[in-house]
Amino acid sequence: MSGGPGQAGARLIVVLGPTSSGKSALAIGLAERLAGEVLVCDSTQVYRHFDIGTGKVPVTKQRGIPHHLVDLVEPHEVFTAGEYRKRALEVLREVGLRGRTPILTAGTGLYLRALLEGLADAPERSERLRDRLRKKAELNGPEHLHRLLARLDKEAANRIAPRDTPKIIRAIEIRTLAGKPVGEIHRSGRKRLEGYAICKLGLEPARGALYARINARVEAMIASGWVEEVRGLVAQGIPADAKPFQFIGYSDLRSCLDSGSTAQDAVKRIQQSTRQFAKRQITWFRKEPDVKWLSGFGDDPEVLASATALAQASDA
RNA sequence: GGACGGGUGGGUGAGUGGCUAAAACCAGCAGACUGUAAAUCUGCCGCUCCUUGCGGGCUACGGAGGUUCGAAUCCUCCCCCGUCCA
Predict the structure, then answer these.
(1) Which residues have C-beta within 8 Å of that of residue A315, sequence separation ≥ 6?
(2) Rounded Cα gap, residues A43 and A65, in angstroms
(3) Nucleotides of B under 7 A from a protein CB
(4) CA→C1' distance for A57 and B7 (Å)
(5) Which of A24, A35, A239, A270 is deepest in the core (most CB within 10 A)?
(6) Radius of gyration from C-alpha coordinates of chain A
(7) A169 CA to B75 C1', in Å?
């Protein structure tokens, strides 16, 4: 089939899986075989200057395949799932106009869902309101906000754990700004992505093998200059509370530099956080519908072969 | 050789007679998550049986004995670790 951009029939390939499962390699391989371009779906790679620790594919390894949705904002900016969706839709259209196949590499489940299933028609975040709520929480304890939510929106309060402050704040925010409870807004539907035949390929290496890869990859990142990168970011004056400094490894390495200890001290911790993160990704993706699971790493030629076959079969 | 301090579940570490399968934290496993998501939060976490219950049995606080209705908690001896004195 050869539908034009945006029309039913255009093909979209999604490669999803936990960190270090080889999504990038698989996506590039597929792109070479299927005249594709890569769309990154990763909440950390949208930040400029944070390259090594976020696992960006260096241009020299992209093999001429265009990579989109990377380096979109500066470290001090706040980026959201809604913003991602907006930008991704644009890129999706452009790639379609070029007659190329979009290949999405997804590590951030929420962003993937925001793009594919859409977001409800809820108000965007309001920093002022959130600042006020956070101050209240600091003053009266985290459960205070939950009690407040219970008064405003019983249903949401029942659903959200009393100490899950970020989600409580969002619920209060929506209730306040929209004047309606979250549940109601969610039930009113979301704008899902239309016009694409979507082929989802999931990478699912054995847990032990994945963890071993993660450990090795963290070492490799350090070897390729991660510490120097962090030193440079600090020198640029990027504050420690900037969003991307919350990403795995960056704060560890930063405090390493501050305390003068070696990076090796931080490596174990970084590996551990990364493993825990991978586990959460796995949990999220497990319930993703219609995924064709591949039990291996994306850089395995056999996995690439079966992925290619699956992608082509979905085209028929 | 002598004087103290200490040996607790995968790790750190509370607990000094019953409320203790043993706090808390970490790790691990499972899960939730519609706008900061590499975030945030929840559950489980000795083994085992079933009629899956604030259920039963077994094992467990270095080792062996002992005191007691009852011991991780008290006593005796032994082993190991740390610090200090010779």
Answers:
(1) A1, A11, A197, A199
(2) 21
(3) 27-42
(4) 51
(5) A270
(6) 21
(7) 60
For A11, phi then psi, to 5°, come to -100, 140
Give the type of residue at A36. Answer: G
Question: What digits encode the pLDDT tens for the residues A91-130?
Answer: 999 999 999 999 999 999 999 999 999 999 999 999 999 9
The pTM for the full model equals: 0.93
Round to a whole number and report the distance in Å from the CA of A263 to the C1' of B42: 33
The strand order across the sheet containing A10-16 reads A67-68, A36-41, A101-106, A10-16, A196-203, A291-294
- Amino acid A309 reads A
CA→C1' distance for A32 and B52 (Å): 55
The one-character DSSP state at A46 is: T
List, in order, residues 6 or more apart from A246 with CB less than 8 Å away: none
d(CA A279, CA A274): 9
Nucleic acid strand B within 7 Å of A125 CB: yes
